[in-house]
Amino acid sequence: MTVQEVDLLCVGAGGAAYPAAFRLAKAGKKVLMVDPKGVMSGNCLYEGCVPSKAVRETAAFYQDAQRFQPYGLGGNLHVDFAALMQHKDAIQERRYAQHAAELAAEPLIRLIKGVARLLDPHTVKVDSDAGTDTYHARHILIASGSDVFIPPLPGAEWCLTSHDLYKPSPAMRALPEKLLVIGGGYIGLETATFFAALGTEVTLLQKGAQILNGMDPGMVNLLLPLLPKGLELRTNVEVQRVENTGTGRRVVWLEDGKEQNQEVDAVLLAVGRRPVIPEGAEALGIAFDHHGIQVGPSLQTRFPHIYAAGDVNGRVPLFHAAVRQSLVAGHNILAGNVPSDYADFDHVPTTIFTLPAAAYIGLTPAKVSPGSLLEARYAFSEDSRAQILERLDGEIRLFFEPGSLRIRGAWIVGIDAGSLIGQVGTAIAGGMTAYDLARFADQHPMSAEGISKAARNLL
């Protein structure tokens, strides 16, 4: 049996893998990426961030056109959902071509469509259409991502998942009149708002008491009343089963001890994701639980040369967090597996891309004892850009350390939330204070003015 040598073998080829791969290739190292899809990119492009936001931004434009109809803009509005899906598919195709060109330009990186199995701490078998090959890897980066979690729900086979909705050539090509979403996390709530904005009647069922469970209740309570009309939110329900009616679906649930049901055209099952642990990891003693492979800020497992980055470790399951973690792993590999770089799991900007959006970073009041943070606010009702676009709902809240006035966290609900939270994140990473933010001349008329204005409220 011939064993091929590589400096780095990446189990996966998404955002947790290819930044490290290109960093090592730049240093002259030989890299192999193994991925079941056979393309460079992970679930973000296949069924996550990019395609879902293609739908989201189209729905947002539709909302804007409706908002400005009184001024003679928009005309007779009509949603061509099939065309929208074609637009989504075209964006995915464009980005796949872009990634393929980047990969072709780097001769030290090879990508195989296949499945990797860990045999020992340095040996990996790869099963592909061409057969089985064995590799000796000086370093291994487990970046196998996550997959949709399907609970043992009777009738789950009659439900769609985010995979079905957003993958290339998705299962849904016609806009449903009625949609029921099971799950009140960010994927379920985002999708519910997209369809509601496009005109679908949407019901969302959440098992627990809070939609967006685990997020700051102050932010959530401000966001929920601002979501599109046509979206009904129900909490503290227990879904019993999903039935196929022949023409649609019937969902049966318990609420306040009583059985209720609703007939809809389609059901979206969005109750979370699970890490994809490569075969052989458990036998090697690599520790993991239902969240993912257990790693610290250096991203190393029990073996200093084996790393786990991105969704598979469950620390911050977001694409941009995966990219940063991949680079941390790459830097530590180049440092001889002696940690020289560390992932910051606590200060990653997170946006819920609902309509409108909400975003947060760092420490917020729900995470600390009362009085531990000083709060500064800015309402978008007084913002010039929000007024121009007739999007007056929501606000910026910044949270500072008493005494030093160093910014420690923030949440934003409303216009440009996803962009603004990045600016706040840069301020947190730079150790900036309310004085620093107040002195900065944010552009006018832009919503970022609200950051400096909020800081000035403390001074």
From TrEMBL:
Its cofactor is FAD. The keyword RNA-binding does not apply. InterPro entries: Class-I_Pyr_Nuc-Dis_Oxidored, FAD/NAD-bd_sf, FAD/NAD-binding_dom, FAD/NAD-linked_Rdtase_dimer_sf, Pyr_nuc-diS_OxRdtase, Pyr_nucl-diS_OxRdtase_dimer. GO terms for molecular function: dihydrolipoyl dehydrogenase (NADH) activity; flavin adenine dinucleotide binding. Keywords: FAD, Flavoprotein, NAD, Nucleotide-binding. Pfam families: Pyr_redox_2 (PF07992), Pyr_redox_dim (PF02852). GO terms for biological process: 2-oxoglutarate metabolic process. Residues 348-454 form the Pyridine nucleotide-disulphide oxidoreductase dimerisation domain. Disulfide bonds join C44-C49. Binds 1 FAD per subunit. SUPFAM superfamilies: FAD/NAD(P)-binding domain (SSF51905), FAD/NAD-linked reductases, dimerisation (C-terminal) domain (SSF55424). The keyword DNA-binding does not apply. Residues 7-325 form the FAD/NAD(P)-binding domain. NAD(+) binds at G183, G184, G185, Y186, I187, G188, L189, E190, G272. FAD binds at K53, D311. The active site is at H444 (proton acceptor). Belongs to the class-I pyridine nucleotide-disulfide oxidoreductase family. PANTHER family: DIHYDROLIPOYL DEHYDROGENASE, MITOCHONDRIAL, DISULFIDE OXIDOREDUCTASE. This is Dihydrolipoamide dehydrogenase. It comes from Acidithiobacillus thiooxidans (Thiobacillus thiooxidans).
